Amino acid sequence: MARIKNIDLPKNKRIVVALTYIYGIGPARAHDICVAAKVSEDTRTDNLTVEEINRLRAEADKYVLVGDLKREVEMNIKTKMEINSYQGTRHKKGLPVRGQHTSRNARTRKGKGKTIANKKK
């Protein structure tokens, strides 16, 4: 079983797909890592040799991933909230940050709909 950045990669998947299970690696970065490590994208995780796993680990270590990346994102959000930027105030209020409309949608951020007293349809 391949283990990169303390994440167990899923068994019997192409390595380019399995790398996307690591937080911070998407399809494009997974492709770049495979090319730099000289590992075929069609190789299954079960068929990786120890050398290939070590090369993939070395390439993945060049990027900010998993815990460090999550910490960095949290710090960026806290900074925006501290300086009272528009995005920071949206984070504080629990509303969508990136300009989405909120009159009918945004239930993911706003939560379950609240009933308004004496409102007739």
Summarize the entry for a quick read.
The protein has about 120 residues and is mostly helical.
How does this model look, in words?
By secondary structure, this protein is mostly helical. It has two domains: 3-60, Orthogonal Bundle (Helicase, Ruva Protein, domain 3); 66-110, Irregular (30s ribosomal protein s13, domain 2). The protein has helices at 15-18, 27-36, 50-60, 66-82, 86-93, 107-110; strands at 3-4, 7-8. The protein has a two-stranded antiparallel sheet with strand order 1-2. The termini are far apart.
Inertia-based shape: elongated
Strand content: under 5%
Structural class determined from secondary elements:
mainly alpha
Looking at the structure, the CATH topology of the largest domain is: Helicase, Ruva Protein, domain 3
The share of residues in helices is: 40-55%
Radius of gyration: 21 Å
Give the domain tally. Answer: 2
Question: How is the main sheet built?
Answer: 2 strands, antiparallel
> What topology, given as strand order, has the largest sheet?
1-2
Taken in chain order, the helices and strands follow as EEHHHHHH
Low-pLDDT stretches are none
How many DSSP-defined strands? 2
* Name of the CATH first level of the largest domain: Mainly Alpha
What's the architecture of the largest domain, going by CATH? Answer: Orthogonal Bundle
Straight-line N-to-C gap? 58 Å
Number of helices: 6
> pLDDT average, as an integer?
90
Structure characteristics:
2 strands; 6 helices; 121 residues; two-stranded antiparallel ribbon; 30s ribosomal protein s13, domain 2; 2 domains; mainly alpha; Helicase, Ruva Protein, domain 3
